Known about the structure:
The protein has 377 residues and is of the alpha/beta class. It has a single domain (54-160, 213-375), classed as Rossmann fold, CATH 3.40.50. The chain is 38% helix and 19% strand. The protein contains twelve helices and nine strands. The protein has helices at 15-24, 34-44, 127-134, 139-145, 170-183, 188-210, 214-230, 247-258, 275-278, 300-305, 325-341, 361-375, and strands at residues 54-64, 67-75, 82-89, 95-101, 149-153, 235-245, 262-268, 312-317, 348-353. Strands 1-2-3-5-4-6-7-8-9 form a nine-stranded mixed sheet, with helices on both faces. The radius of gyration is 20 Å and the shape is globular. It starts with 14 loop residues before the first helix and ends with a helix. The mean pLDDT is 96.
Amino acid sequence: MSEEKRYRNLGPYSDLVAFAGAWHGLFPPAAPSVSTRDAVRQCLAFDPPSTHPREVSVDGKWQGNGLVGEEISWSVGYGPRTHAWLLYPEGKGPFPGVVALHDHSGIKYFGKEKIAEGPDGLVQSLEDFRDRQYGGRAFANALAREGFAVIVPDAFLWGSRRIPYEDLPESERNMTDAVAAAWQLTTDIQKYNLATTFNEHTVAKTCSILGVSLPGIIGYEDRVAVEYLAGREDIVNGRIGCIGLSGGGLRSTLLQATCDRIQAAVVVGLMSTYEGLLDRNVACHTWMLYPPFWSRHGDWPDLAGCRAPSPLLVQYDLDDALFTVAGMKDADKRLRSIYEQVHAAENYRGEFYPGPHKFDLEMQASAFSWLKRNLSA
Length: 377
């Protein structure tokens, strides 16, 4: 990185990038190895010894449109119970399993409902959102119809795991009221989603006080969901994958990096080098994208590649406003190099699609085929 480069996010402090790089190095190549995976876990700073879900309960069951659905809940040991939907084809298994990971999208009121449909069908307030992001369908249900058992858990801070509005700091609620009035937001759901945009900063600061990290907690709770899926008798032993768009792609990256049970991962719309973010795309992303001090050990693509040759599909949107094309293409090049190092170039695929931030029907078809090839018995 040149000392003369001026970064939009840093202005007169642009030289801080070169100063930090000269002091401790930035984004060094991180080879896929046990030591790299250990560094990942150290930086995530949240690795409780057990990932077994506690007090598991089946709270409901339904059937229709070729699928069986179950509402599962469990405790991770703190906070509200995690609720998840499990979807699988009618008829006997066993099935390969997939963890479908909902996005961030600044919508924390809902979690699993964004990518899946339960017994009550589509949440109407999410219809336009799903049209934009997912080609108008619940991709988790569509994936289950392809022959998978798909579990869709709410992430830490989303859906069943959200912080009640009245428990948010008063300053954040006051700020929400002021901005909501200016933007003419009228529903409680809109106000909640706005408030939690402010609150994520508070949660990230609190994590620092506790010596943990927000991405570390997110990754840990997703590993608990994997552990639940792996313990079911109707899941093909050792055949579990993960998939997600945006914040779900981020969660898929964390699972790929930290969970040996994951045998194939799909990351959609969430892959770039950090250098590709520095100039203009830092503020628009969640704290989940920045594990503390990871940049001293490697780059974001190295997280996804640290378990190579474990199969990995990354889908990029060329007109994605959240990333630069250069950052995405550099990430793709870096991942190809990682998989070539372990003589498994065929286990990584990078796909580039025209259009904005999305996981449309064409992309879904390719991702589903990838999972079939890599999780079939």
